[in-house]
């Protein structure tokens, strides 16, 4: 029997972090379809994130992306979030949108550009100091498009140098999360293309450096749960950027393309006890809602993550261990599938009720009138971000 009391307790503690950029207009390189009521400022993005928390009860943090969320006073921004009942989460550095970064940021052959990129990363640590944020998320678009374009090993040296400087700047309790991505925008080499490269850099950097797994950043068919299990075993999984992919880095709602994969990932997390807040794994979303409304898109994603977690928590660990020890291939698989096939929606609705929330967050948000209110109030101006 799975331990339902423990599962309930774990679900009550669950926290999913929202990306501020999910609330702004975003699109593909073909078209950005503007939506009414999208935020015009970091404050408005935080207000929208607070709505997701209001209806789901498990999204108490919002991640910032600098400079998309640049403000004069970050402490004040964090205070504002606090007034709305949420906190500032990860600070995401953006060293990919300036003209200077044509040949890369921290791995650029030009020392002036490298210095500029590093200064930005250090500025992001200042933002962490001001907001009380624990994690700095580093993703580099750096790489090359053509064989021979640059020296692959020299680029690794430049990258390592910048990472060391960031590590040295981190304060107590602060971490750097290194995110890898197979390709794009670089199409020949990417300087941090996979978990192995990220892990190797983190090993050298020491305890403050952890790998972040963005679920959309792998080749088709990659066994992501294996990567998760391995990094957890090594104590190097700092967090997730959750999203779904059908083809490349699609940034669709998590659990939309492959809910079974999300369950398998969460099963590894639960097996390692890494769903406990003390484990320090940040469960973040990294999504862009191109055609669907943004706040409901985030609510649905949070619910999908919650459902996958609930199913993973319902795996009968004893029965699984017994089947594994007995070499019962089909029995072990059946234990997992039993949990995956459980309809956890009534359980989650019940838990919401206990927290004083409406059982159906999507319906409750739709009935709240918030969407109509922001569409009427927020006229003029678009916040910087993918769509800007
Ligand atoms: C890169 C990425 C990274 C960025 C975000 C906006 O593809 O996943 O996490 O910061 O998208
Ligand atoms: Mn990401
Ligand atoms: Mn991505």
In short, what is this structure?
The protein is α/β, with parallel strands linked by helices.
State the fourth-level CATH superfamily: Divalent-metal-dependent TIM barrel enzymes
CATH class: Alpha Beta
Largest sheet: 8 strands, parallel
CATH topology: TIM Barrel
Bound molecules: 6-deoxy-beta-L-fructofuranose, manganese (II) ion
Tell me the β content.
5-15%
The radius of gyration over CA amounts to 21 Å
| Number of helical segments with 4 or more residues | 14
Q: In terms of structural class, how would the helical and strand content be classed?
A: alpha/beta
Number of strands: 10
Strand numbers in spatial order across the main sheet: 1-2-3-4-6-8-9-10
**Overall number of structural domains:** 1
Mean pLDDT: 97
Question: What is the percent of helical residues?
Answer: 40-55%
In CATH, the architecture is: Alpha-Beta Barrel
Strand and helix order: HEHEHEHEEHEEHEHEHEHHHHHH
What's the overall geometry? globular
Any overview of this molecule?
This protein is of the alpha/beta class and 388 residues long. The chain has one domain (4-377): Divalent-metal-dependent TIM barrel enzymes (TIM Barrel), CATH 3.20.20.150. It has 14 helices and 10 strands. The protein has helices at 4-13, 42-56, 74-83, 111-131, 152-169, 195-205, 224-233, 259-271, 294-313, 317-325, 329-340, 345-354, 361-368, 370-377; strands at residues 17-19, 61-66, 87-93, 135-139, 143-144, 175-179, 189-190, 209-214, 237-242, 282-285. An 8-stranded parallel β-sheet has the order 1-2-3-4-6-8-9-10. Strand 3 (87-93), helix 4 and strand 4 form a beta-alpha-beta unit. Helix 1 packs antiparallel against helix 9, helix 2 packs across helix 13 (361-368) and helix 9 (294-313) packs antiparallel against helix 13. The longest helix is centred in the N-terminal third of the chain and has 21 residues, at 111-131. The chain is globular and about 60 Å long. It starts with a helix and ends in an 11-residue tail after the last helix. The model has no long low-confidence stretch (mean pLDDT 97). Residues 139, 179, 214, 241, 286 line the site of one manganese (II) ion.
